[in-house]
Write a structure and sequence with these properties.
Helix content is about 75%, strand content about 5%. It contains eleven helices and five strands. The chain has one domain: Up-down Bundle (Rhopdopsin 7-helix transmembrane proteins), CATH 1.20.1070.10. By secondary structure, the chain is mostly helical. The strands form two sheets. Strands 3-2-5 form a three-stranded mixed beta sheet. A two-stranded antiparallel ribbon has the order 1-4. α1 runs antiparallel to α2, α4 runs antiparallel to α9 and α9 runs antiparallel to α10. The N terminus is likely disordered.
């Protein structure tokens, strides 16, 4: 390839969902509504947990962290898309694209890791209830969150460092509504071997690894619940982890759905629409899942909004 056709491109184009002008107002209103619901719902959940002393327990220590991560995760993609629609522009700078990739990976990995830590918390609560407060002490909870933040930050930094040496052709069009690492790397005109290698290793370590940890925790939880003799005891034990199990199923179900659909079809439009499920819909539904399935949080929310329990 001639060197004149390759450049350190300073601007990319995000093609989004549709290039039809008449579709843009509907897309803008729809995503603005979902973004506001996501931010408001997760902020209310954080407020509910922090405002009630009865919820200042290890079990609810990780929930505000998850809600904060959900807000940040969604904020890496939706605001820029809304601005582009409003300004009738598809452009994003090279620096802006890499910055959003960094935070998208960091908060996505952090989401995954915190869900894994919460699975461990459920495992201790159900399988070792008498030692729960001793094992899940404030120091350990804080350490687990710190490890999650550190691992996700380092992983994101490493993946971005692998992208920096890449060169891109004169006009780069990303068939997505945000800068997605895999698509950006495969649009490069230079060799992407090391970037691909780091992406695959990261997927195994921070994707498959945490998922395996969650499966192991729930295998032990199911085994422990089956040994409970009374139906009431089984229901009480299951209700302890029902909200978390619903969130995990939604998160991994949508992520697997996106990447399986990507492997089956080359239709970028279908992949873009499918990506909305885990980048927008899942963070939006999480606070509702915890609010509806958790009796303690429902009680706190009733008090906050002036309703009698």
């Amino acid at each position: 390839m001639e060197s004149g056709n390759v450049t350190r491109n300073r601007e990319f184009l995000l093609l989004g969902f549709s290039e039809e002008p008449e579709d843009q107002p509907l897309i803008f209103v729809l995503f603005l509504f979902m973004y506001l619901i996501t931010v408001l719902g997760n902020l209310i959940l954080i407020l509910a947990v922090r405002s009630d002393l009865h919820l200042h327990t290890p079990m609810y220590f990780f929930l505000p962290n998850l809600s904060l991560v959900e807000i940040c995760f969604t904020s890496t993609t939706i605001p820029k898309m809304l601005v582009n629609i409003q300004t009738h522009s598809k452009a994003i700078t090279y620096e802006g694209c890499l910055t959003r990739i960094y935070f998208f990976i960091a908060f996505g990995s952090l989401d995954d890791l915190i869900l894994t830590v919460m699975a461990y918390d459920c495992f201790v609560a159900i399988c070792h209830p008498l030692h729960y407060t001793v094992i899940m002490n404030p120091r350990l909870c804080g350490l687990l969150v710190l490890v999650c933040w550190t691992m996700s930050t380092l992983d994101s930094l490493l993946e971005i460092l692998m992208v920096l040496p890449l060169s891109f052709c004169a006009r780069v069009e990303i068939p997505h509504f945000f800068c997605e690492l895999n698509q950006v790397v495969h649009l490069a005109c230079s060799d992407t071997f090391f970037s691909d290698l780091v992406m695959y290793l990261s997927t195994v370590l921070l994707g498959v690894g945490p998922f395996a940890g969650i499966l192991y925790s729930y295998s032990k939880i199911v085994s422990s619940i089956r040994r409970i003799s009374s139906a009431q005891g089984k229901f009480k034990a299951f209700s302890t982890c029902a909200s978390h199990l619903s969130v995990v199923s939604l998160f991994y179900g949508t992520v697997l759905g996106v990447y399986l659909s990507t492997a089956v079809t080359e239709n970028s439009q279908s992949t873009t629409i499918a990506s909305v499920t885990y980048t927008v819909i899942t963070p939006m539904l999480n606070p509702f899942i915890y609010s509806l399935q958790n009796k303690e949080i429902k009680g706190v929310l009733s008090c906050l909004f002036g309703k009698k329990q």
